């Protein structure tokens, strides 16, 4: 094989590798940017929750100073709205009225089965299929995720609306 043939083969392989990488980048990102027009129409709880993005994950905690686990995060956000929710995800799911996935609105709670048990994780729906939550020790912080992500779709359990509920159980 002469040098020109070898160079052409390398160029073809490089081009193919770049196309594969670009195809991966063209897929739906985990956290596409939130629509700016939805900011004014978002539930106040969702707007406040977004201000806590990046706060540390800490199991059993529910404050910006100490950090949050998933239910502690939701409980803290709603306490600021004058709504006292139960402490655990399962208690929240049991106490709040279910809403169909098609009727989900900003501020609703979205529940997941992340550890083999129903209603083991919770987040706050923002808009445009996105929700904010304190996912785990592994991710380490409060973050926005997309309900269209395969991981979350597979584990989705239901929606509840805390604005209809004013007392803790």
Task: Reconstruct the topology from this structure.
Layout: H1 3-25, H2 44-51, E1 62-63, E2 67-68, H3 70-79, H4 89-95, E3 98-99, E4 109-112, E5 121-127, E6 130-133, E7 143-146, H5 150-155, E8 156-160
Antiparallel strand pairs: 1-2, 3-8, 4-5, 4-8, 5-6, 6-7
Helix pairs in contact: 2-3
Widest sheet, order of strands: 3-8-4-5-6-7
Q: Which CATH-level-2 architecture?
A: Alpha-Beta Complex
Strand content of the residues, in percent? 15-25%
Order of helices and strands: HHEEHHEEEEEHE
The N- to C-terminal Cα distance equals: 77 Å
Helix/strand structural class: alpha+beta
Helix count from the secondary structure assignment = 5
Helical content class:
25-40%
- Uncertain spans, ≥5 residues at pLDDT below 50? 4-30, 164-169
Q: What is the CATH superfamily classification?
A: endopeptidase domain like (from Nostoc punctiforme)
Shape descriptor reads: globular
CATH topology: endopeptidase fold (from Nostoc punctiforme)
User: Strand count, sense and closure of the main sheet?
Assistant: 6 strands, antiparallel
Radius of gyration: 21 Å
The number of distinct β-strands equals 8
Q: So what's the CATH class? A: Alpha Beta
Describe, in plain words, how this protein is organized in 3D.
- Mean pLDDT is 81; it is low at 4-30 and 164-169.
- Helix 2 (44-51) crosses helix 3.
- With 169 residues, the chain is of the alpha+beta class.
- The protein is built from five helices and eight strands; from the N terminus they run ααββααβββββαβ.
- A hairpin with a 2-residue loop joins strand 5 (121-127) and strand 6.
- The chain has a single domain, classed as endopeptidase domain like (from Nostoc punctiforme) (endopeptidase fold (from Nostoc punctiforme), Alpha-Beta Complex).
- It is globular.
- The strands form two sheets. The protein has a six-stranded antiparallel beta sheet with strand order 3-8-4-5-6-7. The protein has a two-stranded antiparallel sheet with strand order 1-2.
- The chain is 32% helix and 18% strand.
